[in-house]
Design brief:
By secondary structure, the protein is of the alpha+beta class. The protein is built from eight helices and eight strands, in the order H-H-H-H-E-E-H-E-H-E-E-H-E-H-E-E.
C-alpha cells in the first residue's frame, strides 16, 4: 500500500453526532478510494490492521467493509483478501417508484415503520447521490417495511438539507413532513408531484450484517438483495436510497421496455 494511503488510513476516526462509528470508517476508506490513494485493483489492509490504525473494533471495521462491498467500492476474494473494485460504481433510476410500491402487492398490507429521521453529515457514499460535498448536512430517513406483520426490508433514504432549486421552493431547504406512514420518496412525490428523474437502480447481493439483522429478525450472515436507487431532479443529484430486502419478501418484478 502507498505510504500516503497508509498515513491517511492510520488516523483515528470518530463518529459524528447521530451517526454510527461504522459510517465514519466507511467514509475514511471510501474517501481514500475516490481520491486515488487506494487505486483500482489494489489490496486494502485487513480488518485487524484497519481497526488498530483507526482505533476501532474489528466488528465496526467489518460492518464498514460490508457496506463498501454493497456499494461496489471493494470486492472480496475468498482466502485472499479485499480489493478496490476495478471499476467504481456510477452515480446515476430508470424507473422511479417508492419502495412501498415496489414491495407492495394487492391484498397485502404494507406498513412503513419509521426508525429515525435525523440530520447528519453526508458520508462519502451519500454525498454524491444527493449533490453535496462529504460532511455537508443531509437528511436520513430510516425505515423498516413490514408486510402482513413480517419485516421484509430495511430502507435508508437521503436528501440534502441544503437550499435546493425546485420550482417555487428555489433557494430554500426542502420542508418534508414526516407523518410516519410513508417513505421519503412517497412524501416527496406527494409534495412535489411524481419526480421526473432520470434515475438509476443498482441491484446487488450482500449479507445483512449485525445491526440490521436485529431490525429484520435475521442472522447477520443471512443474504439480502440490495437495491440502491439514485434520482436526479433538474439534472442534479437529488435523492439516494438503499433498501435491503430479505428473502421472505419473495420475488420482485422488473419492468422493461423495448427501444425501437
Amino acid at each position: 500500500m502507498h505510504q500516503d494511503a497508509a498515513r491517511f488510513l492510520s488516523q483515528p476516526v470518530a463518529a459524528q453526532p447521530g451517526s454510527p462509528l461504522r459510517v465514519a470508517v466507511y467514509s475514511r476508506i471510501a474517501e481514500a478510494i475516490r481520491n486515488g490513494l487506494l487505486t483500482p485493483g489494489s489490496m486494502i489492509p485487513t480488518e485487524t490492521e484497519l481497526g488498530t490504525d483507526m482505533k476501532v473494533s474489528r466488528t465496526v471495521v467489518r460492518e464498514a467493509l460490508m457496506l463498501l462491498e454493497e456499494d461496489g467500492l471493494i470486492r472480496a476474494r475468498r482466502g485472499v483478501g479485499r480489493f478496490v473494485s476495478d471499476t467504481l460504481p456510477r452515480i446515476g433510476i430508470e424507473r422511479i417508484r417508492p419502495f412501498e410500491e415496489v414491495l407492495g402487492s394487492p391484498g397485502q398490507q404494507l406498513e412503513v415503520k419509521r426508525i429515525q429521521v435525523v440530520r447528519q453529515p453526508a458520508s462519502e457514499f451519500a454525498a454524491p447521490g444527493v449533490g453535496v460535498e462529504p460532511g455537508t448536512d443531509c437528511w436520513l430517513w430510516e425505515s423498516v417495511l413490514i408486510r402482513d406483520g413480517e419485516a421484509i426490508a430495511h430502507l435508508q433514504e437521503n436528501i440534502s438539507a441544503q437550499p435546493v432549486s425546485l420550482g417555487k421552493n428555489a433557494g430554500a431547504p426542502l420542508d418534508i413532513k414526516d407523518d410516519g406512514g410513508a417513505t421519503l420518496l412517497a412524501a416527496l412525490n406527494n409534495q412535489l408531484g411524481r419526480l421526473p428523474g432520470p434515475g438509476e437502480c443498482q441491484i446487488s447481493l450482500s449479507q445483512v450484517g449485525p445491526s440490521r439483522a436485529k431490525l429484520l429478525d435475521l442472522r447477520p450472515s443471512d443474504p439480502v438483495l440490495v437495491l440502491t436507487q439514485y434520482v436526479r431532479y433538474g439534472n442534479q443529484p437529488f435523492y439516494l436510497a438503499k433498501c435491503l430486502i430479505a428473502a421472505r419478501a419473495g420475488h420482485l418484478s422488473v419492468m422493461q421496455s423495448l427501444q425501437s
